[in-house]
Hints:
By secondary structure, this protein is α+β, with helices and mostly antiparallel strands. It has three helices and seven strands. Strands 1, 2, 3, 4 and 5 form a five-stranded antiparallel sheet that branches. A two-stranded antiparallel sheet has the order 6-7. Strand 6 and strand 7 (about 110-115) form a beta hairpin. The protein is globular, with a radius of gyration of 14 Å. The two termini are about 15 Å apart. The model has no long low-confidence stretch (mean pLDDT about 85).
Amino acid sequence: MHVAYIGLGSNLDGPEQRIEQALTALNRIPLTRLVTVSPRYASSPIGPQDQPDFINAVACVSTRLSPLALLDQLQALEQAHRRRRLRHWGPRTLDLDVLTFDDQSLDLPRLKVPHPACMNALSCWSPWRISLPT
Length: 134
């Protein structure tokens, strides 16, 4: 089994409900189990400020999927929530990121782990501290 941390964020169309729905959906990904979830956390956008604040959370999952297979599942969930990529760092109905995957370091065209945006982003680190399993 692998342990992955998933960052969740939303700032459009009922972000609190979207995060809750995404958490339920994470537990339905094949060969994947939700282990723990941080409290929800409001944060300012990292990019353009002409958009609503985000609701964020971090989920810890155990999975038998590979990093790219997990990413594919997360992107399918984003699409189910009608995510549209209109501009970099723009508003979104749902954003799901693989923050870490075991202790692996990956630099692939589709996936960078640890997630580079989280190196300095409070929206990742603040709830992540709380979601570490004991």
